[in-house]
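Technical note accompanying the year-one report. For the benefit of new consortium partners, we illustrate the data format agreed upon in the data management plan: each record pairs a sequence with a structure-token string. No post-processing was applied to the example shown here.
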Amino acid sequence: MFQHADTLHLDAARIAIGGHSAGGNLATAISLWNAEQTHPVTLIAQILDYPPLDLATDPADKPFFKEAIPTEQARQFNAMYIARAEDAYHHLASPLYAAQLEALPRTLILTAEHDSLAQEAQQYAKRLQAAGVHVEHLEFAGQPHAFTHHGDANVALQAWQRIADFLRHVFQSAKRS
């Protein structure tokens, strides 16, 4: 996208990345990987919506809610993502274990109260903040994993509106720079 920004009619100075669930994991892994590059591209923001950020902790050891992803299914998801158990501690698989967070872009993290992944996302938000990254974390009370796609329509709309407002703000701020 950055190499072909002109062809794609993109403003390469105003690109954000984000994702829901596993997409949130991939988005922050890309942000981490990018920050490690000799010549990183400019990402102005990342949006992580109920992301799994700790694949090393057994899903059975995470908080359990009846609405949460079943433990065995969560283990299957993890197994599809990592080849060997020790790979689960790699920061690009489990961003919660990343040593360097300072160069990451402004971040919005949305979590669901009744999601077994919420705790690790909350911890990640605290680590980002401690590293000096501007981070906003919103937890949606009483909501399960994937609530922005399969939950209460009014609550989902609130989350989507916050994402839109966040993007509007970072894009406008980048335009002024």
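Partners are asked to follow this layout when depositing records. The chain has a mean pLDDT of 94.
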